[in-house]
Amino acid sequence: MASTDVKVIGKAPSPLVNRVQIALNLKSVDYEFLEEQMGSKSELLLKSNPVHKKIPVMIHGGKPICESLIIVQYIDEAWTDGPSILPLDPYARAMARFWAAYVDDKFYPTLRAFAFGSVEGEEAKAVAREQLMEGIMLLEDAFAKCGKGKDFFGGDTIGYLDVAIGCFLGWMRAVEQMSSIKLIDETKTPGLFGWAERFGSNDAVKDVIPKTETLVELAKTMAPRAKAQ
What we know:
CATH class of the largest domain: Mainly Alpha
Strand content: 5-15%
Number of helices: 9
Radius of gyration: 17 Å
Largest sheet: 4 strands, mixed
CATH topology of the largest domain: Glutathione S-transferase Yfyf (Class Pi), Chain A, domain 2
Number of domains: 2
CATH architecture of the largest domain: Up-down Bundle
């Protein structure tokens, strides 16, 4: 079911914004994208998310929904005609939520710090590399357990955990290009390697994830600000 009464406030390079866009695409929901300018926050954003004052925000029928994972769950529940995003099985749903929280709380902060060059010193960089690779290996194991030999974390089709993790693929590739780290490797992480190819080429995803070169240039631009913070 398509809807034109949906707006997404965000920035195109943001993986958390991309997460919302992918979920909407999976449900074939039309939306208006309201681009925030770098270094500033619009009045609409501040009004729509007065608590955290952060993107993404989705406005549906004039009502704002905040926090990317909450928005994805809302999308799944609001548009029931499309394919289910969250697993139907209660245990599978709990595991998907667990790993999505792990990615946001543990993996993404390290990836972001590495991408923006805020990890300084060889010892700190070595620790960050180890944390990233540990996270990748945990996700490789999670893929085997959640996907059960199928194409995606969600099984035969893209699901909640695919969206939660896959939105970071662009930034993973950018970090690989900017450093000597190979995060997703055909030999060491064959499950994730095949999954990344399938996920990235899906019609709901391929035009959403920014190009690697774009993210590399953005990371270089934002590095001084990240270090200052």
